[in-house]
Amino acid sequence: MGDCIFCKIIAGDIPSNKVHEDELVYAFRDINPQAPVHILVAPKEHMKDMAECATRADDLAGHIMKVCVKIAENEGLVNGFRLVTNKGEDGRQSVGHLHVHILGGGQLSEKMG
Ligand code: 5GP
Ligand code: ZN
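Structure tokens for the assembled complex are given below, as produced in the milestone run.
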């Protein structure tokens, strides 16, 4: 956790292009966008992935999804969008702090895996 890049972004120690922030989550534009709109939504509290988030008693997972939908609306993604969260090696997770990708702004690849 001490050297987590997303914790540093959320703390403001590494600059980011912020899209949304509330008491629970921080959203920012991906540094290497895979679509015209590519935003990452991460909980402020460090947790490694959605499986860890799903063990919580609260509804943080639901809040993250609701924030994703609101951001997609704000970004004008009226024709659709994709939400993705990678877990672990097979899921090709490269940053070990939970985040959901919002992808949109044009028709996405037919392939997902
Ligand atoms: P993952 O592969 O873990 O699902 O996604 C990690 C994402 O974080 C990648 O899409 C990558 O481009 C993005 N990313 C990695 N480092 C940084 C950074 O320092 N700033 C921003 N804005 N995005 C980052
Ligand atoms: Zn972290």
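The CA atoms of residues 54 and 105 lie 29 Å apart. The pocket of guanosine-5'-monophosphate (ligand 1) is lined by residues 5, 14, 16, 28-32, 40, 86, 92-95 (CB under 6 Å). Further analysis is deferred to the final report.
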